[in-house]
Automatic annotation (TrEMBL):
It comes from the Bacteria. The lineage of its organism: Bacteria, Bacillati, Bacillota, Bacilli, Bacillales. Keywords: Membrane, Transmembrane, Transmembrane helix. This is CXXC-20-CXXC protein. The keyword Transmembrane applies. The chain crosses the membrane at residues 48-74. InterPro entries: CxxC_20_CxxC.
Length: 88
């Protein structure tokens, strides 16, 4: 597993820089280029959360902890590109 890199200068994002990122607003700290997530990575990010969604019917506390774990793994699924891409 590796963290996403900048599409322009290959800057490797740090984990803490990705905790709060908003689609299209994320900028590379090195070259200042805007970062958009790819369609492929959006789907992968959604898939990571699937087990957590399923658990919402079972136990709330379990769901919250699962969401935190899923979020951690989700950040490794992010891929950045230069243009905004549709979900489909
Ligand atoms: Zn960059």
């Amino acid at each position: 597993m590796k963290l996403p890199t900048c599409w322009s200068c290959d800057y490797k994002f740090k984990w803490k820089e990705l905790i709060f990122f908003i689609e299209g607003r994320k900028k590379c700290p090195k070259c200042e280029e805007k970062q958009y997530t790819t369609t492929h990575s959006k789907w992968k990010m959604g898939m990571v959360f699937l087990p957590a969604w399923l658990c919402t019917f079972i136990n709330l506390y379990l769901t919250i902890s699962l969401f935190l774990i899923c979020y951690y793994f989700m950040l490794y699924q992010v891929e950045f590109t230069d243009k905004q891409q549709p979900l489909y």
